[in-house]
Design a protein that fits this description.
Layout lengths: L19 H4 L6 H6 L3 E6 L8 E5 L2 E7 L5 E5 L13 E2 L4 E2 L5 E3 L5 E4 L8 H4 L7 E4 L2 E5 L21 E9 L3 H5 L6 H10 L13 E6 L3 E10 L2 E10 L3 E4 L10 E4 L3 E9 L2 E10 L31 H6 L3 H6 L17 H18 L20 E6 L8 H17 L5 H15 L8
Antiparallel strand pairs: 1-10, 2-3, 3-4, 5-6, 6-7, 7-8, 9-10, 11-18, 12-13, 13-14, 14-15, 14-19, 15-17, 16-19, 17-18
Helix pairs in contact: 9-10
Length: about 450
């Protein structure tokens, strides 16, 4: 029978399933074991009060608390004695005490006192409550859930140190698999359609201008390279994905209306799998006059389940409005709880997504084969060099640049961004300025 195309829904039933190698994150799964080799954010400091906080990450439900000494503990939920939840535990000067029978654990899981058992009970030597190392940093609590012997140093990224910049933590929950949230960062075509043409301009109007795209690997993951011709200027943005699940993106409202070199990012965020079908995006939103010269940012809207730009949560707008002007949340969640890659019909516009999946798969398999997970390296600098930025320079050509010129310009900017990673920020900016001066006929401010 000839293939039925028109009204052919009856023939398109498929038994395809999700790709577990990339999407499943529980203990013992390939992706879950890979993720556990990195520090992951579990909560904002502001969420943690005097009572224990129930948190979920990588398929595990855990209890986070701060004891009387100010030290943080992250323990398995169920007491090793009879399984009562430590979310109801009594926070002590040192550690936490189970409400049921008084078993007392230190922040590292050591059993200090087995309730009413004698102080010298052998239980204290043979029973340990599951616990994970934690690190509190700039208003976010991070945890390491992997093998203790493989615990890496805690990384600090260069964009955390931007001068004259306010940093505010935020945390957003998305009810779908982590990968469809994360791979959105390497899908720059969606910016033209979802954030400009389908729903009206949701971010800067300049983001809706057609772009020439390229992609490049970095020591941390990959970048997409977007180059646009805006008026008399060329704007090149490099958006960064750092494996396994970290992202940086440029100024939300960027209009490319002024010359600038190596302007850094507006967000540093982790897309953390809580389980196979829930993601928590945790990170910092950055605010400065350079990133937002027109004052459109709103730090007061940034925090728990809230951020200052549209389309990131379910509760910010009525359903009908979300249908009329969908955002990232609607597009990502509507792909199914776990997107089924085998049902996709990918096109050239999906180059970045395919590349990111391939890099993730290779890294997951390497860890599964016993190789160490590659970690960020400071290389003697104050912080880990990263590669997200916006550069805008004047185009001095007699005619508008065609696609080949724009692609070459974007590649040169990207090469300078990548090749200057051993330099401090001011020297990196100077190197990129030099590239712009050569490529676009000189900086107009110098005559």
């Amino acid at each position: 029978m000839a293939e039925q195309r028109a009204y052919g829904g009856y023939y398109q039933v498929s038994e395809a399933r999700e790709d577990p190698e990339l999407t499943h994150v529980g203990r013992g799964t390939p992706c879950g074991e890979y993720m556990r080799r990195y520090w992951q954010p579990v909560a904002m400091t502001a969420e943690l009060g005097e009572l224990p906080l129930l948190v979920r990450i990588l398929g595990e439900t855990l209890v986070l608390f701060r004891d009387g000494r100010g030290k943080l503990g992250l323990l398995h939920r169920h007491c090793a004695h009879r399984g009562a939840s430590l979310e109801y535990g009594i926070v002590a000067e040192r550690g936490i005490i189970c409400c049921y029978h008084g078993w007392h654990y230190d922040i590292d899981g050591t059993l200090l006192q087995a309730g009413s058992e004698p102080a010298d009970s052998p239980l204290c030597k043979r029973v340990t409550q599951g616990a994970y190392p934690v690190h509190e940093h700039r208003g976010i609590v991070f945890a390491y859930l992997g093998p203790p012997a493989a615990k890496p140093a805690f990384p600090v990224y260069d964009t955390e140190l931007m001068a004259d910049t306010q940093r505010k933590p935020f945390s957003l929950t998305t009810p779908c698999n982590w990968l469809q949230v994360y791979e959105n960062t390497q899908d720059p075509i969606h910016v033209l359609h979802l954030h400009a043409r389908s729903s009206g301009v949701q971010f800067g109007a300049a983001s809706g201008v057609d772009q020439v795209l390229d992609y490049a690997d970095t020591p941390l993951g990959m970048i997409n390279v977007q180059t646009r011709h805006i008026g008399t200027r060329l704007w090149t943005r490099t958006t960064e994905s750092m494996l396994p699940n970290l992202n940086q993106t440029g100024a939300i409202w960027e209009e490319a209306e002024a010359v600038k070199y190596f302007q850094r990012c507006a967000m540093l965020r982790w897309m953390v799998p809580l389980d196979n079908t829930t993601t928590r995006t945790i990170g910092w939103r950055f605010f400065s006059a350079r990133l937002d010269p027109h004052g459109r940012d709103d730090p007061t809207r940034v925090g728990k389940e809230s951020i200052d730009f549209v389309g990131q949560t379910a509760d910010e707008r009525a359903y009908a409005e979300r249908q009329r002007q969908p955002g990232d949340f609607e597009a990502q969640v509507s792909q199914r709880p776990i997107a089924i890659h085998a049902l996709e019909h990918r096109a050239t516009s999906d180059t970045g997504v395919a590349r990111l999946r391939r890099r993730l798969r290779n890294s997951i398999r390497a860890v599964a084969n016993g190789e160490p997970a590659p970690q960020p390296d400071h290389f003697g600098l104050e912080a880990v060099s990263t590669y997200c930025q916006d550069t805008v320079c004047e185009w001095r050509g007699a005619a508008p640049p065609d696609q080949s010129i724009m692609r070459e310009h974007g590649q040169r900017i990207a090469e300078a961004v990548l090749g200057s990673s051993h330099l401090p920020p001011a020297e990196r900016e100077a190197q990129i300025r030099s590239v712009c001066d050569d490529a676009a006929g000189g900086d107009p401010s110098t005559g």
